Amino acid sequence: MDTVMMGLDKNLIGQKLEKDVYSETGILVVAAGTYISEKVYQKMESYFINNVHIKKKETKDKKYQDYAVIKSTYLKNVDVMKTVLKEISLNGTVDDEMIMDMTNSITLHSQKMGYFIDCIHDLKSADEYTYNHSINVAIYAMLIGSWMKLPEIDIQYLVLAGILHDVGKSKIPNEILNKNTRLTDEEFAIMKKHSHLGYCIVKDMENIPEDVKKAVLMHHEKLDGSGYPLRCKSKQIPKFAQILAVADVYDALTSKRVYKDKITPFETFKEMSKMGYSHFAPDVLMTFLKNIVYYYVGFKLKLNTGEIGEILYVSPLNNYQPLIKVEGKVIDLSLDKRYSILEMA
Ligand SMILES: [Fe+2]
């Protein structure tokens, strides 16, 4: 592993420890994998810890190159998605090969997920929402699958399910799909048909596993039975559909749409926690919220005061009020109510 030993310093707050930290008398002070918070820092200081191991920073060039590769993969997939959906709506045919190529191009980079998250946030487009959204859901579903330690093949199928989950929207009239105001009840009833329409499109595709087809059909089911189209409850909803549901809602809330603005990931964590287990499978939601927060450490943001800051640390126990570094001072949003996040920069 590419680690480097650093002298204990306040600048390390927000970074992850790559090795266990022991006191001189052999007591385990902090375990590997812990993020250095103010408290963790103070604990290490009280044990007179001098050095810790953190991840070696990549050079700017290497970072730039990696990001460029992921960005071109992401943009290419958005373009292919456009072609796939147009093809379905015009001819009713799905190009299996294109779908499989997209799946492979995403899973190939499963070790670089941080860059995919950067792409999702950098390249959001209200006009291209349907295409970006399918790729984003595939990426978030892959993340959840790997955090849940699912087998490799399931993770591959989750990416496939994410790509396909909204193919039924190709059969929804454009005036409803692209309407720039909220849908009426009648229009929403038509929109809700997309998951069943999607299932009808994929059900005869030989290369698509049954679990993926069911996930396409059931990605809008909710645990309390208030979802659609089958109004299934808890365990009647297959795992892949439960995972897509979390990925889908997270991307929808953090995306700008023609009729609504996006909300920040932190407000979204709060919203999804409120929706809670009546909507989502507890193990899936907990795994997602616990892990996704770490991807936002280092993200730039704008506060309500106009100041630009950087996410320093997000506690899994209070994931919507992070610690923020602003020009030499550290603001704890859970304690200092004068501040709030206006937008992610
Ligand atoms: Fe959907």
UniProtKB/TrEMBL annotation:
InterPro entries per the UniProt record, alphabetical: HD/PDEase_dom (IPR003607), HD_domain (IPR006674), HD_GYP_dom (IPR037522), HDIG_dom (IPR006675)
Which PROSITE patterns does this entry report, sorted A to Z?
HD, HD_GYP
Which domain of life does this protein belong to? Bacteria
- Residues of the HD-GYP domain: 108-304
Chain ranges of the HD domain: 130-253
Question: Sorted alphabetically, which PANTHER family does this protein's record hold?
Answer: CYCLIC DI-GMP PHOSPHODIESTERASE PA4108, CYCLIC DI-GMP PHOSPHODIESTERASE PA4108-RELATED
Q: What is this protein called?
A: HDIG domain-containing protein
